Amino acid sequence: MTTARLLRPLLIVFSLIFPAVAPQFAAAQLAPLTAEASDPGNMGWMEGFPPPPDKRIEQPDSNYFSFPKLRWTVCHLRELLPTEQVSRGLGAPVRLEYALDETHIDGLRFRPTNSRRSMTFAESLTANYTDGMLILHRGKIVYERYSGCLDEAGKHGAMSMTKSMTGLLAEILVVEGQLDDTALVVDIIPELAESAFGNATVRQVMNMTTGLAYSEDYADPNADIWIYSAAASPLPKPAGYSGPNGYFEYLQTVKPEGEHGDGFHYKTVNSDALGWIISRVTGKSVTELLSERVWQRMGAEQDAYMTVDGLGTPFAGGGMSAGLRDLGRIGLLMLGEGEINGERLFSGEVVRNIRAGGSKEAFEKSGYTTLAGGSYKSMWWLFHNDHGAFAARGVYGQTVYVDPTAEMVLVRFASYPTAKNADIDPTSLPAYEAVADYLETLEPEASP
Fold first, then answer.
1. Is 98 helix (H, G, I), strand (E, B) or coil?
2. Domains of the chain in sequence order
3. Which of 111, 149, 161, 427 is most open to solvent, judged by the fewest CB atoms within 10 Å of its CB?
4. Cβ contacts of residue 318 below 8 Å, gap of 6+?
5. How far apart (Å, rounded) are the C-alpha atoms in residues 109 and 119?
6. What is the pLDDT of residues 232-260, one digit of tens each?
7. Can you list the pairs that 241-245 forms with residues at least 24 positions away whose Cβ atoms lie under 8 Å?
């Protein structure tokens, strides 16, 4: 039996965050079901007591993250995988104010990239299989919609937006002097001395400019992703398994390729390495630190949670699920440069450092054509557009998009049939800009 066949049930843990998914596991149909037809309610997934056999989504199952099943799975990860809580604490949430303007926003028209035809904002939500959309302007909710598997009480997979939470924690530690971003990784984690990470700086890990021999070619049964999947899976290891156990052991096996700092290389193992660095420096897991520094202090209304490996290590690169409004609070926190609800959670220098961006030259080498002129820093995406927008992003359409000029935060949860954001950026990024342009024209409300 090949390695690929042996480890098929394990791949799913990692398809949550990688920019491509193995064709045999999650290839989109040539003509995928529409958003309405693939709605989990219309599909009848997991309905009934018990659900009929053809409507069950179970674990272990190698295709529970394939379309259209993924449209149910993104809201039910903790029913399929072990998780660790990101506690909001015991205090009362801080309610967000509303000033709904949904009719105007729904009707806004824009032209998708490289298209001659325009579409409305409302049409773009359907086109992008949107499960949740939240827009805040000057601190108030002006738009809020739920569909698919999600309602206002639910949580949704954030996918690689988890990376931005990990990067934010690291940047906070750097500004506070607890973490030296010029230090070599080996000086913080001696266990990585023989790996490719050992002679990289912390900043190179934070900005994903490390030179790593790491393949995510799912079609290759000998690709590194298979070894990574086996090591980090929370499922029992197959009989005879002798590979690394958990994220941390796997990171010690990563070999070098190219020069550190030469270019931007989006590889999730950087996020797991950064999670280890954070935990070693603070003596706390990523989930604990995120709870203490952010979730308990920003007025969150729900706990978040993260998937973990077999040793209980949080998946710092893609394991978080959270509520739509709580990610709106994350956006407000970034828009407010570390301040929310009149309370300062961390120095404004943290956000200013992130907004300054990384190397555009290094980013250009990565081939992200829909993000031309952008950069990447501390695991946040910088657009360097006229509004200074920046974002957390995750596969299948997840985003927290912050536009400082328009004083706008936009949060989207989605379950698009294919993983790459490049597939939906043409109908997403122009839509965000159209909303920002509209909101920017509105006069501030008069003070009472």
1. strand
2. 1-441 (3.40.710.10)
3. 111
4. 14, 16, 17, 158, 159, 160, 162, 163, 268, 271, 394
5. 5
6. 999 889 899 999 999 999 999 999 999 99
7. 245/310, 245/311
